[in-house]
Amino acid sequence: MQWRKVLGRVVGAAALLGLGIILGHFAIPKGANPPAPSASASQDLDPEILETIMGQLDASRIRENLRELSREPHLASSPQDEALVQLLLRRWRDPESGLDSAEASTYEVLLSFPSQEQPNHVAIVGPSGTILFSCRQSEENLTGEQGGPDVVPPYAAYAPPGTPQGLLVYANRGSEDDFKELQAQGIQLKGTIALTRYGGVGRGAKAVNAAKHEVAGVLVYTDPADINDGRSLPNETFPHSWHLPPSGVERGSYYEYFGDPLTPYLPANPSSFRLDPATASGFPPIPIQPIGFEDAKVLLCNLQGPSAEADWQGALGCDYKLGPGFEPGGMFAGSQVNLSVHNRLELRNSSNVLGIIRGAVEPDRYVLYGNHRDSWVHGAVDPSSGTAVLLELSRVLGTLLKKGTWHPRRSIVFASWGAEEFGLIGSTEFTEEFFCKLQERAVAYINVDISVFANATLSARGTPPVQSVIFSAAKQIPAPGPGSLSIYDNWIRYFNRSSPVYGLVPSVGSLGAGSDYAPFIHFLGISSMDIAYTYDRSKTSARTYPTYHTAFDTFGYVEKFVDPGFSSHQAVARTVGNVLLRLSDSLFLPLNVSDYSETLQSFLQAAQLYLGPLLEKHSISLGPLVTAVEKFERAAVALGQRISALQKGTFDPLQVRMLNDQLMLLERAFLNPRAFPEERYYSHVLWAPRNNFLDTFPGLASAFLRAIDTDPGSAAWAEVQRQLSIVVVALEGAAATLRPVADL
Amino acid sequence: MQWRKVLGRVVGAAALLGLGIILGHFAIPKGANPPAPSASASQDLDPEILETIMGQLDASRIRENLRELSREPHLASSPQDEALVQLLLRRWRDPESGLDSAEASTYEVLLSFPSQEQPNHVAIVGPSGTILFSCRQSEENLTGEQGGPDVVPPYAAYAPPGTPQGLLVYANRGSEDDFKELQAQGIQLKGTIALTRYGGVGRGAKAVNAAKHEVAGVLVYTDPADINDGRSLPNETFPHSWHLPPSGVERGSYYEYFGDPLTPYLPANPSSFRLDPATASGFPPIPIQPIGFEDAKVLLCNLQGPSAEADWQGALGCDYKLGPGFEPGGMFAGSQVNLSVHNRLELRNSSNVLGIIRGAVEPDRYVLYGNHRDSWVHGAVDPSSGTAVLLELSRVLGTLLKKGTWHPRRSIVFASWGAEEFGLIGSTEFTEEFFCKLQERAVAYINVDISVFANATLSARGTPPVQSVIFSAAKQIPAPGPGSLSIYDNWIRYFNRSSPVYGLVPSVGSLGAGSDYAPFIHFLGISSMDIAYTYDRSKTSARTYPTYHTAFDTFGYVEKFVDPGFSSHQAVARTVGNVLLRLSDSLFLPLNVSDYSETLQSFLQAAQLYLGPLLEKHSISLGPLVTAVEKFERAAVALGQRISALQKGTFDPLQVRMLNDQLMLLERAFLNPRAFPEERYYSHVLWAPRNNFLDTFPGLASAFLRAIDTDPGSAAWAEVQRQLSIVVVALEGAAATLRPVADL
């Protein structure tokens, strides 16, 4: 088979590259379940098993999974969502291809839904009170899948009910600066309805920023310039192309935090303490509703007032004006916009499904791999493209397991999270419930949400220690499509950076809070990664794939436009499977902690360059930070040398375990639950939100920004000093974790 | 030797008792340093080595240590304190009897000292401004050791400077209730000087409570009723007996938290962020000064006003009146009391000394054993009696180590903490600096502060998992003095309780914040214990040993009155050595986690009995707590069974390590850094302060107390529900830690 030859060559190349992680290969116990661990305490990654798994991951089965998963809309907590819980349980309990065990665990969480009796409604109301125009209440039924009671109408989850009415203004992306700009232009904002477009800032932020200016309600739409590379005509869009049709509306959660809103830091068990929803924070302060660009065009292209600046213009085919109100000569002269939102908060049951393959040697070390299950509508891309891959990988591993061909060294935990779309709720509740156990035992968390955005290249985010294992995997797998490049060699063509240590390498992004990895990295300090196949960014400027969170994200859409043949899905399955197996089976954990040094150096240099001069004026020295980074680097290098030396000599499993514990727990050393008390769950001092200001230590950057206009000796400058100390202490603690364990 | 025979018998008895902890004994590697760990991965506790160590712990060497340690006053950060740092380093680096390595680490911490130029002063000032009486500024020089520049005059550390003057009132122990009682009696408190006696509430609380009533300054003395069993005459007290002389004054820290006051949650490194001392919290709000009972008698026995109630009376030989002011007919008629405090806050260097014996098999598991080094004056009892024991134990172990006779399985860390007297500062800064490393790797912390209060019996505090290992040790060692009882059998005569599981056992107290174990248990969740020899409580009601924190706590005092022959010191050394070796060398960790079940059951029953009815009225169910306690119990029992089964069969070192990790990390599962935000460092949901109200879950009890007078639906009742959820989640997390590691 051609594929096998390619793989063989790539494997050979990877071996030549010699990452030094795979060591002596010992026999894998067969048959016994669980096998006697003493027989295999030195069990290492088996390249043959890895090759077998790569070979068995089947594109057509991923396609079938996707068809089944996306057959019906499966909004969180809906009967269809619950049906998928049962599907996952059946698969993971299958006697031929299932896992060692599988369970569903259910939380009682606060979700938000539009009212069925009183649909949300956006209308232009004439001076006499007549409705002159109504926006669509649902998307156009183009493929027969956009209708029916299970398609939730477009809405802004967690937006409060209300029926504000006022003059329309156009507020670009609804950022703080956008509203300030309107104010500067003399546009009266009080009592208006602000039309905004998606992008720039988070969904909820648009309402938060608007409310600060006494705006009464907010509309959001997706501009064809931002999603369709400008195309907006029906015959240019789905089902004629992959572009968003004029009636398509992005649904989404407008909640500002993540996790169940009523049970911060506590698992949402039925008996758990719950906040009063009336006093819970993080919900949009004013009504907000998303609409399609077809309707947005009617509103926007009839506005009066000054023309918006070039940056604010979009692709609706008219000059975007700012308002307030419609042009006097037009059909809506003197009209206002009425926004009727009737969303309701409801306590609902939402389940995670967890499946485990018991580690044969170190069952108390967990490699977690998860994706959410809930969608907004059919969710073929989001999230079922990920779940389809998850199921195929669990099938292949489960089959080897049930045959007794293979048992991983460490435990593998598969997770299907519930209610991610409402704010990473299932995964967050899971981390709250098992905080202690996970903090002690989790080796890494792998997230695949949308597995395929597009067919161009692999894309990965993660903390520095996972870079090397993703690279190792990507070098071993052929890229889909013509040519014989590896996924790695293809990837480096699209996203790359110049590393001071390695030269040109694919660039691995950092982890925000866009999917279920967030509680794992930010709250628990578990080395995490997010993997997908994605666009050629030189060919599209789309924010995301065009039908994101709409009723047009269907199986047909994927099959026809996103990944015909499902080879990109297969590529993701192989990459993830390869990474997963390296993490679960390698004797020495393939977490390259010294790759943190590069991040720390770049953060340090940014701090010295951009913050240093003003810090010096305020007598705040970066000297201790320089020392701490150096200490970390030295400790990481020395640990690498100890591992190499051990690999060359003789060693016993306890020695390997102790070193692996240092590697696994390094990420935990960067946690400080008291560092950012106002940022719920964010405890990782290197990856807390940075306000997009500067790629440096985030607490330091945020405190600096708040202090910059205050007097010397202010509380804000004291906080800068405190944040600096927090980073220094974390780095020194991290260095201590890496140093020889019996050093004082 | 008689002693050997006794020990032999006790060892035999202990073996018969069969605690099932010591398993198959493997050869201990000799010579190599460090030995090849692979040769000894199944290394277990060696009863012969244990017996050797018990035999070599020498009372006369402890006596010599004590003499050397207490020769000079060694107040924290003084040159004499620094000289002891060097002494410890010499001992621990000795080529014949030292440890594998030893280091001093220095923090820059905020201490408080009286001014040398302006001594603190308490005087009675007549109506015309004449000083009619002055309290002593130093203790009487009875043995030649109470004079000289290195004897710090009595003072209240961290009391603010000030020179308040006002009418004197007597306020008993200065509790909230005491001041309320004075108020109820119509005693005008505003602007007065309140005379209080030690005991009842913490030192700092007396000033805090007084300030709430606008008292201007506070005096504190030790009543002979509370310390001397009533004796107060010079010929009844030291140097004629062990009782406190009339001029003796208890010094102490009046800081309300622990750790360096300027660097909460951060190690006090020179570059660390520091709070502005003017805004730091926890200092006494008004001047306060301790005095001797000789001077207190002059003040108290001349007061006018109503007689204090019987509970408020003491042993000064007069009727205690409440004031305000002195009796009209007496020599101080119309006089006021002037209190001049000139204390200064100073940043000082204070060192910890750390010594380590590298574990031969699991160097990354630490058994810590510490005591503070700093004293108020000579500190023969406090803390040198503990340091003398520490040095003897480190000598015996170091000698075996240097000879190559023995290497522990796990690492042993000896610690000599600095600046404990000012608020557990050295130990707290250590836990802040190495939080992550310790949380991952520390098996247990053993504290011996004052090793011998008196000669009657062993006394121990600790978390439930350490009870069994203390019992095992105590059963193996003969009690000092006549008779052939073991320490255990002697102990049970003095302090005992009826355990539902074990029947009559010695009672192990719970850990407050009285010594350096506090940051280990409360902040880090490390199983901890505190061990000493102490009084026959039926023979004395003294608050502590009489010369506590005075200049009379000298070597001669110990030798003559506290422990002539040093056999109680030796008994403590043997007990601690035995516990330490069991923790460091046993293949299976001797932490009996199921002993937590008894605590949980008793907490639960107290909650059900005393809080249950009112909780029910507020619709708060204890049902989830009952379930969580049951889950914990089942998991603990099942884990015990798995350990027993493993011990009977074959096992490899990795399996033992995994089980030991469950035992070690159980205590961590009870930590929740967000449970008690107002209680600095307290994160352990079972051992946070309880306000002495009820022996139950502390957060629940405190919240209940605050809610009890509020309306249904109040925020205070919501907090009760939140605290209940916090406990339930912690217990469920603890149960998850104990369950089979590959269970979902």
Automatic annotation (TrEMBL), chains A, B:
UniProt-listed SUPFAM superfamilies: PA domain, Transferrin receptor-like dimerisation domain, Zn-dependent exopeptidases
Q: Where is the Peptidase M28 domain?
A: 352-558
Q: Where is it predominantly found?
A: membrane
Domain Transferrin receptor-like dimerisation: start-end pairs: 620-739
UniProt GO cellular component terms: apical plasma membrane
The record's PANTHER family line, in alphabetical order, gives: AMINOPEPTIDASE NAALADL1 (PTHR10404:SF50), N-ACETYLATED-ALPHA-LINKED ACIDIC DIPEPTIDASE (PTHR10404)
The entry's protein name is Aminopeptidase NAALADL1
